[in-house]
Structure to design on (457 residues):
């Protein structure tokens, strides 16, 4: 409760400033979550009500209201996958607690708590088996909590990748010999632990006895055919081709302890969290699919578009925020303001007065927008790229041109058009150039000098 009070206090201070959603994400990560950084690893996980309250406070601060403008499961994705790189408190806790295991695996790290934790494992001499199966001795609550977090991380990561966990086969209750847990000291000593160790290179089939012996250069005395048969029968009973999470062909061999092994020290919680969202494709997001329809079903690589936006086009948070809101279709328009009863007179376009002022109308169809875009395209041809063509307005909307300078001009143009539609004024070239110069003042992007020289000509 003391931490919640402190978090609310920080939010009250920062709410007085005109922050973009990117700026608020920075505040959330560096100031608000940091209030819990040193409490989370040693203490039991807080109850669900605390986590729910904390998340609610965070997302209300992000949007400045009690209504999320973009779904939380999207916002918590990585930036190149359509999110803002934010995360839930539960994922933050999983990342921090799971990162402790990397120290458990680091032979150069020595500490009393590490020795205690190893002794609290069910099999202290077999750390891999204990950790992979979440096995701690009775009443060892701290160790069990850490192991549970690791298990949850594996489940979330393979779900994101639409894959299957590379289970440790030894003492695993899901992979058994007709109810009896599997165990083979000879194979354990050889470092053979996982389902993937018993699969062919393409993971399509389970190795037969002779292929397995040859792969691991074992002698027939190491394991008999009967013992091996019991192991592969357990794997086959576990395998379920109709369910991704239990299909051995989809085993993700990266989601296991080797991911947490670091010779330099502890694996950061942020890297662990990122793996939980690593393989999510942005192309299926509803607003992005709608843009594809509006742009005449032209193919668009949205991962590239989003990477350009956040890392290449600009470092001006206001520009990035505008473009992100536009792509997510939550930027303002008269039609939406009329539906929300902010504007009560008419939802028709404030400039042409003919059509509903929707987002596609503002940026694609209004005659005043098209007249301005014609001037912009002529300027780009004269000053930047004489071969520039954008008949479907794809470069204009998504800013996926190979030239980041052209993308910058297009983003500022859309931002300027948005301001003019809100004010009910016609877009004029001199006003656009003024906004362009103003946006450059707070930008530290590498191609800033090139843009300045273009404007000076």
């Amino acid at each position: 409760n003391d931490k919640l009070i402190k978090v609310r206090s920080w939010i009250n201070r920062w709410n007085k400033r005109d922050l973009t959603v990117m700026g608020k994400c920075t505040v959330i990560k560096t100031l608000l979550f940091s209030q819990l950084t040193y409490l989370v690893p040693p203490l039991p996980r807080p109850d669900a009500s605390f986590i729910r309250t904390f998340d609610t406070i965070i997302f209300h601060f992000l949007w400045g209201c009690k209504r999320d403008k973009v779904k939380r499961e999207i916002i918590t994705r990585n930036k190149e996958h359509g999110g803002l790189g934010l995360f839930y408190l539960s994922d933050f806790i999983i990342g921090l607690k799971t990162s402790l295991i990397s120290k458990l695996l680091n032979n150069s790290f020595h500490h009393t708590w590490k020795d205690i934790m190893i002794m609290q494992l069910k099999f202290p001499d077999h750390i891999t088996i204990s950790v992979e199966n979440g096995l701690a001795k009775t009443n060892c609550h701290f160790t069990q909590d850490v192991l549970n977090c690791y298990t949850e991380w594996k489940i979330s990561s393979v779900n994101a990748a639409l894959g299957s966990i590379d289970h440790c086969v030894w003492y695993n209750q899901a992979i058994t010999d007709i109810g009896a847990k599997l165990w083979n000291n000879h194979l354990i000593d050889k470092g053979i632990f996982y389902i993937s160790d018993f699969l062919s290179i393409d993971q399509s089939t389970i190795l037969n006895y002779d292929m397995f012996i040859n792969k691991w250069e074992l002698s027939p005395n190491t394991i008999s055919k009967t013992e091996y048969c019991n192991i592969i029968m357990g794997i086959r009973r576990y395998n379920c081709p109709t369910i991704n999470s239990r299909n051995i062909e989809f085993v993700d061999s990266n989601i296991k302890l080797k991911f947490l092994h670091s010779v330099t020290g502890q694996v950061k919680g942020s890297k662990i969290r990122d793996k939980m969202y690593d393989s999510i494709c942005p192309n299926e997001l509803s607003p992005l699919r709608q843009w594809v329809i509006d742009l005449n079903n032209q193919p668009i690589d949205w991962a590239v578009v989003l990477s350009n936006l956040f890392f290449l086009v600009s470092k001006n948070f206001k520009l990035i925020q505008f473009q992100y809101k536009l792509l997510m279709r939550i930027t303002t328009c008269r039609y939406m303001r009329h539906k929300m009863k902010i504007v009560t007179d008419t939802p028709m376009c404030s400039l042409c007065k003919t059509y509903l002022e929707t987002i596609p109308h503002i940026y694609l169809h209004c005659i005043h927008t098209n007249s301005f875009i014609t001037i912009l395209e002529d300027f780009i041809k004269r000053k930047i790229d004489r071969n520039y063509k954008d008949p479907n307005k794809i470069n204009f909307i998504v800013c996926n041109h190979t030239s980041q300078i052209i993308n910058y001009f297009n983003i500022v143009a859309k931002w300027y058009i948005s301001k003019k539609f809100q004010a009910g004024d016609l877009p004029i070239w001199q006003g656009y150039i003024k906004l362009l110069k103003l946006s450059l003042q707070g930008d530290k992007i590498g191609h800033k000098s090139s843009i300045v020289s273009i404007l000076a000509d």
